[in-house]
Amino acid sequence: MKRRTPTLQKRLKRLLRKAIRVQYRGFTLVELLIVIVILGILAAVVIARFAGATKDAKETSLKANLSGMRSQVEIYRARSASDSYPTNLQALVTESYIRKIPQDPFYKKSTEYTTLQGAGIGGWVYSNATGQVYVDIPSNDSVGLPKDTSWGDVYSAW
Q: When comparing pLDDT for 55 and 40, which is higher?
């Protein structure tokens, strides 16, 4: 009679070797570190690309708000019997030229001032003598008009 034990032992050894190989099938520490570094570089590029998006959106919103309020001030003047500007921005709301005074997108204020506060506290600056509307933001302009140093544009010129 033939002995079958060695073949059974060989099969068991083969199965154990296969199981051990499967157990160690994973990523090495070096491979994981390389993937993490690549993901970090991609994240840094994406963050740098969209970092200024919020500021650009606020600038666009500010331009739209200024344009809308300025056109409504001019329409008010054109329809006025005395050919004068409204006494304040609230008059535009009262007489249904605008629904409400929009918020300054930088400071989230809809406050109205008659002169530039100079401290860059936010809100709208309106002159009923000239009909000029602009926003009170940090200024470094010699004339005292609002100016944001990161763009270098005087907002009243928009």
A: 40
Could you state, in order of their start, the residue ranges of all structural domains in the chain?
54-157
Report percent pLDDT > 90 for the chain: 25
3-state SS assignment for residue 53: helix
Residue 122, CA distances (Å) to 8, 40, 105, 154 in order: 85, 37, 9, 15
Average pLDDT over residues 32-46: 94
Question: Which residues share a beta bridge with 112?
Answer: 124
Instruction: Quickly count: other Cβ atoms within 10 Å of residue 155's Cβ.
Output: 22
pTM: 0.61
Q: Name the amino acid, one letter, at 45.
A: V
Location of structure tokens 């309106």: 126
For residues 93 and 110, give the distance between their C-alpha atoms in angstroms, rounded to a whole number: 12
Amino acid at 32: L
Q: Does residue 156 have a pLDDT over 50?
A: no
For CA atoms 43, 45, 49, 54, give the dihedral sign. Answer: positive
Residue 61 Cα distances to 22, 65, 66, 136, angstroms: 59, 6, 9, 15
